[in-house]
């Protein structure tokens, strides 16, 4: 397991650690319920430095990446970004990506443990292109502040950071003491939120300031348990949990990740054919689960319709905010319309469930 750069810093805050895809992650700081509440009511600061980060440099970087991913990279101006997927020639997912256009490079932020896979996939198609792929995870850490008071907390830092107004846009400053810091508008739980990319030597100082600012707003530091709970409540799929390399992109990825008007890219023919000739065989759906469930379903627990197996669960949450049990899962096209009644089969028995729209709403 690869340790966080700020392991000792978090240890001093009584962090309990866990592992995600071979990377050390702060699970919680002793009170995940309060951390979850901070995400929804004030602001919670998370160390996301376990995530993968690479940069593409070189004169051909924009044209090259545009031909590799599902979304429109050529349309990005400096200071803007997009959500996209990297897929195989057969349209199967290899990773989802947050792509940001910096002044002289493209920054890719994606799930932990995938740097080798993504880098090798891109390098495979660099032939005579002026493109360099650089792993920047060691040089830059990644902090995040999420919650309705996160903007107020950032403004109180005194760093003269301009707040980027739209999701997946960014601003930056070059601080004489802290170095070049990037601020991205990136809601990770369906509400308000921002990521900060910070030079590693300054990461501890910025994390300390950010947590103090969150506390002034009634918030706290937060960990993986609270973040995952809030993510599932928001109906947001995560690569590695709700989608993986077995999935076709249109089955799983959010619609905003795919441009159907851009030119050719690896996997484009398959994805365009699916759109032209019909639905995918299965698709990711939101599920309202039976209140009688005493234990949440495990990943892979089966869903049935009229006695026939039609799908399975990927993530589930028992939500006091939504007043019920909810899940993400795949359901075959013959049974995946909104309102369809399904039977969930777990180790405890059979329970009713039905398909609901994203984002989830209180029961």
TrEMBL record:
Protein name (database record): Folate-binding protein YgfZ
Keyword Transit peptide assigned: yes
Any Pfam family the entry gives: GCV_T_C
Gene3D superfamilies for this protein: Probable tRNA modification gtpase trme, domain 1
Positions of the GCVT N-terminal domain: 6-258
Secretion signal, residue range per the UniProt entry: none
Keywords: Transit peptide
Aminomethyltransferase C-terminal domain residues: 282-360
The organism's place on the tree of life at top rank: Bacteria
């Amino acid at each position: 397991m690869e340790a966080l750069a700020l392991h000792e810093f978090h240890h001093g805050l009584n962090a309990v650690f866990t592992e995600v895809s071979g990377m050390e992650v702060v699970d919680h700081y002793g009170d995940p319920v309060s951390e979850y509440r901070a995400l929804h009511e004030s602001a919670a600061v998370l160390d996301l430095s376990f995530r993968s980060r690479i940069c593409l440099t070189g004169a051909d970087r924009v044209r090259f990446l545009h031909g590799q991913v599902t979304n429109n990279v050529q349309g990005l101006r400096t200071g803007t970004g997009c959500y996209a997927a990297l897929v195989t020639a057969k349209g199967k997912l290899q990773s989802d990506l947050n792509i940001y256009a910096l002044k002289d490079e493209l920054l890719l932020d994606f799930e932990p443990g995938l740097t080798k896979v993504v880098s090798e996939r891109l390098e495979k198609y660099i032939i005579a292109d002026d493109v360099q792929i650089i792993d920047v995870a060691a040089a830059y850490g990644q902090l995040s502040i999420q919650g309705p008071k996160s903007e107020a907390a950032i403004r109180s830092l005194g760093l003269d950071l301009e707040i980027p107004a739209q999701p997946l846009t960014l601003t930056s400053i070059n601080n004489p003491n802290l170095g070049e810091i990037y601020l991205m508008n990136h809601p990770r739980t369906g509400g308000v939120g921002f990521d900060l990319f910070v030079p590693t030597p300054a990461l501890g100082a910025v994390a300390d300031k950010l947590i103090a600012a969150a506390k002034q707003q009634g918030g706290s530091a937060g960990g993986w348990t609270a973040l995952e709970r809030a993510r599932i409540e928001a109906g947001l799929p995560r690569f590695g949990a709700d989608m993986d390399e077995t999935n076709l992109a249109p089955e799983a990825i959010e619609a905003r990740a795919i441009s159907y008007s851009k030119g050719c890219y690896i996997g484009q023919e398959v994805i365009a054919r699916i759109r032209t000739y019909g639905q995918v065989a299965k698709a990711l759906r939101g599920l309202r689960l039976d209140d009688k469930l005493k234990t949440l379903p495990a990943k892979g627990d089966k869903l049935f319709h009229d006695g026939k197996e039609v799908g399975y669960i990927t993530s589930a949450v028992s939500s006091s905010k939504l007043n019920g049990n909810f899940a993400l899962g795949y359901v075959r096209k013959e049974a995946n319309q909104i309102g369809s009644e399904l039977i969930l089969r777990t180790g405890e028995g059979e329970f009713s469930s039905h398909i609901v729209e994203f984002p989830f709403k209180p029961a």
